[in-house]
Each structure stands twice: as structure tokens, then as C-alpha cells.
């Protein structure tokens, strides 16, 4: 997030008018472990540092580190719930939050995190993740069945148009649920969810893709043969990276790739057990009985047409 001068000054003012120098530094160490105010400011340890000086240095360093939103989320938590059993009412917090929202961000009350408003901007890091950040994510992977065969049998322009339609279907299922498309490859993509009820969002996005593709193949597909996909949802820790090659080194991403490619079925969505337990019962009832394959447990959903 790019922090404008007015927002920078307001954040400093909140800190030094509401908290002691010691408390300001303590919060800085939560956001940046090992933070040393004397080293950062160049002020010797035998010289006292005022709360205002500490606030200005801390906010500056946190912005440089790309952790500004983490600081604000921490301040919101302290303002509402206190810290270590003590209340810390913070001044001007309403003005601060209002300003951040006006900058094009939304606040997710479920996770207590800010994210960019998708109506204003869409980026792979939700406007907040920094390379190296690790979050618990729900992932949705899609693979186009017999991609090479489709490319071989149909004209390039027709295939590109159909794949463009598929991208639209996927985007319309993922983005409104606060998900992000991390990368599209020739035969598929990976979407990530971190906010709100992320497991539910990933599963519903997968189901919506299947439903819309079902109707697309019957009403709008001009290829002459159906577009078929395999879908999988899995969850776990992921360390964010801007480079897709580096991102794919995450164990959770390797696992969902294996689940989809080894156990996925055409025109079906499989959901691993670590995600399925977090999904509403009304959704669970639409899935098959649990299957065990190697080290994975999962359930499957597909569209059944009555004859």
C-alpha cells in the first residue's frame, strides 16, 4: 500500500498521543520482530527518546518494510480488545479507518485484515501481501481436460475464444468471493482465497464454475466439442512470492497439483478433507462419500442430469 503524507502523519499522531514510547516500540516489535529503535533512529541508548520521535521513526520503518496495514490491524485490535489485559483507547481511529477505506481498501471483520477493494484494483497480493509472508490459504486449481487434443482439432481463433470464455467464467466465480487468480497456464489456473470464510468461498467458486460451464457447453460453446475441466480445492500454509516459479515451490501448491492431476475426474470438483470440514453442512450434503487415495482424503462433487 502506498501511504500518503496525510495518512502517515495521522498514524504518527495516534501513536504518540495515545501510547508511551515503550508501548510504541513494543508494537513495532510485534510487526517487525527484533526491531531496535536506537539502531533505526541513530540515537544512543543513553539518550531518552520521546513518544513522538519513536512514533515517527516506527511508522517510517514499517512503511518501508511494507507492513503498514499490519500495524493498523494491530492498532484496531488493541483499540477494541486491549493488550495484555489492559485497555488502550486510541485517539482518531475512526478517522484513520475512514481514510484507509477511502484509499480503495476494504476491511474483513472475519479475519481482521484489510484488502484492496476489487472494484478499484485487483492484484495478486490483495494489495497487502509481502514476499515471504505466510498465510493459511484455500486454493482452487483448474485443469482443462485434453487441452492438447482441443488445440490440435480446432482452429486457433476458435480455441482462443473458448478459452477466453472460460477465463471469464472462472474470474466471475473467484473475484466476487475475494479470491485472486495467481497464474494461468496453457491448460489451467490456480486461484487463492485468504479472507472471510475462505474454504467455503473456494468450494462455492469451484461449484459455480462447473455449473456455468455446464450451461456454456450446451448454449454458447461454438467449438463443436465440450470444454471439460478437472477442479480441486485444498488448503494449507503458503508463503507468498511474486514469482510464479518460486510460488510453486510451496508444499501446499504441490499437493493441490498432485490431487487434481492424480485423482481429479473430468467435469468434477474434488475437495480435500482439511477444507471440507470447514464447509457448511448444506454444501457437504451435495458431495460423495469420502474417498481415501494414498495419503489424501477427499470428496467429489459433479452435476448429475436426470434421464
Short description:
With about 300 residues, this protein is of the alpha+beta class. It has helices at about 5-20, 20-30, 35-40, 50-65, 70-80, 95-100, 145-155, 155-175, 200-220, 245, 250-265, 275, 280-285, and strands spanning about 105-110, 115, 135-145, 180-185, 190-195, 230-240, 270, 290-295, 295-300. The strands form two sheets. Strands 4-5-3-6-7-9-8 form a seven-stranded mixed sheet, with helices on both faces.
Largest sheet: 7 strands, mixed
Number of strands: 9
Distance between the termini: 54 Å
Structural class from helices and strands? alpha+beta
Spans where pLDDT lies below 50 across 5 or more residues: none
Q: What global shape is seen?
A: elongated
CATH C-level label of the largest domain: Alpha Beta
The total number of structural domains is 2
Q: Could you say what the CATH topology of the largest domain is called?
A: Alpha-Beta Plaits
How are the strands of the largest sheet arranged?
4-5-3-6-7-9-8
Provide the CATH superfamily of the largest domain.
Nucleotide cyclase, GGDEF domain
Amino acid at each position: 500500500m502506498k501511504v500518503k503524507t496525510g495518512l502517515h502523519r495521522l498514524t504518527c499522531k495516534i501513536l504518540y498521543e495515545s501510547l508511551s514510547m515503550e508501548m510504541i516500540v513494543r508494537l513495532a516489535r510485534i510487526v517487525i520482530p527484533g526491531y531496535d529503535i536506537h539502531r533505526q533512529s541513530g540515537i544512543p541508548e543513553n539518550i531518552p527518546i520521546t513518544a513522538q520521535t519513536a512514533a515517527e521513526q516506527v511508522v517510517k520503518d514499517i512503511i518501508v518494510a511494507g507492513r503498514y496495514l499490519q500495524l493498523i490491524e494491530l492498532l484496531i485490535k488493541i483499540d477494541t480488545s486491549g493488550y495484555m489485559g489492559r485497555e488502550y483507547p486510541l485517539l482518531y481511529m475512526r478517522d484513520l479507518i475512514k481514510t484507509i477505506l477511502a484509499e480503495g481498501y476494504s476491511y474483513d471483520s472475519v479475519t481482521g485484515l484489510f484488502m484492496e477493494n476489487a472494484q478499484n484494483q485487483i492484484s495478486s497480493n490483495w494489495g497487502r501481501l509481502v514476499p515471504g509472508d505466510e498465510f493459511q490459504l484455500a486454493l482452487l486449481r483448474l485443469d482443462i481436460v485434453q487441452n492438447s487434443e482441443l488445440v490440435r482439432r480446432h482452429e486457433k481463433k476458435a480455441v482462443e475464444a473458448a478459452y477466453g470464455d472460460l477465463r471469464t467464467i472462472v474470474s466471475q466465480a473467484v473475484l466476487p468471493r475475494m479470491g485472486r487468480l495467481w497464474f494461468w497456464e496453457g491448460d489451467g489456473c490456480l486461484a487463492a482465497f485468504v479472507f472471510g470464510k475462505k474454504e467455503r468461498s473456494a468450494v462455492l467458486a469451484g461449484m459455480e464454475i462447473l455449473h456455468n460451464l455446464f450451461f456454456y457447453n450446451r448454449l454458447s460453446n461454438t467449438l463443436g466439442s465440450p470444454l471439460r475441466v478437472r477442479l480441486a480445492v485444498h488448503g494449507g500454509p503458503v508463503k507468498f512470492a511474486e514469482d510464479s516459479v518460486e510460488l510453486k515451490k510451496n508444499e501446499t501448491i504441490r499437493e493441490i497439483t498432485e490431487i487434481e492431476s492424480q485423482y481429479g475426474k473430468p467435469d468434477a470438483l474434488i475437495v480435500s478433507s482439511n477444507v471440507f470440514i470447514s464447509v457448511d453442512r448444506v454444501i457437504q450434503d451435495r458431495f460423495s462419500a469420502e474417498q481415501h487415495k494414498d495419503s489424501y482424503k477427499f470428496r467429489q462433487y459433479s452435476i448429475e442430469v436426470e434421464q
